[in-house]
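Problem: given the chain below (243 residues), write out its structure.
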Amino acid sequence: MRVTAAGDVASLRAAGAFVATATSDDEGRLEAALADVHTLVHVGGGLGTRGPGRIVADAEVAARAARGAGVRRVIALSVAGATPDATDPLRRAKAAMEEAFADLPCPTIALRLGLVDTPALRDVLMTAGLDPVHLDVVVRPVRIADALELVVAFDRARARSTQGHLVVAADGPQAMSVAGYLDRVTGSQSGRGPLLGRRLPDAGTIERLVTTLVGPWEQTEPQLLDGWGFAQIEPGVPGPSSG
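Solution.
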């Protein structure tokens, strides 16, 4: 497994990955790192990304690098409700990201995931001081382990495909409010739990968070393939030890 990342990559190396350190806009270094790579998994940004425009720029760089390196498949992690006319910048950016990869000559897959449960997400939701309106937003959280299983399953399933772009829906298995999610994974609601040891978000991050958090987090587009059903995966509900 190869990983391209910037900053502290010690944990990635400890996990056994071959790591190329580079910024996301270093197209030449990324293309070199992709030499002889069969499948590129593009994570992209999320709720905490500083400026959704960065998501689009990074995807365009990655797409050009993948084309130049002759990558044979791309799987991109997107978000529920990603459309060009979405009300929030993150979902518009993720839709543009999907389009950037869809133009490649190799098979490409966009996995539109629900709210992915990560330590960083828990930190920002716990410390953002969310008001009751946002605490009542209905989400369908997805465990990281299940998201990774889905990536592997779709990489295997499309092994014989030579072209085409597929968009897949992958909501979490259980609907709950943001408050209910935080109660389940941390035992506290936003602003009421211990802050010691948590990363505190800046004002800009909180503003982007509340704009995106409104949703939608449940995908209703009938034309989208149900990822869990297709891959025959039964996703679990995030708990205290799953982040």
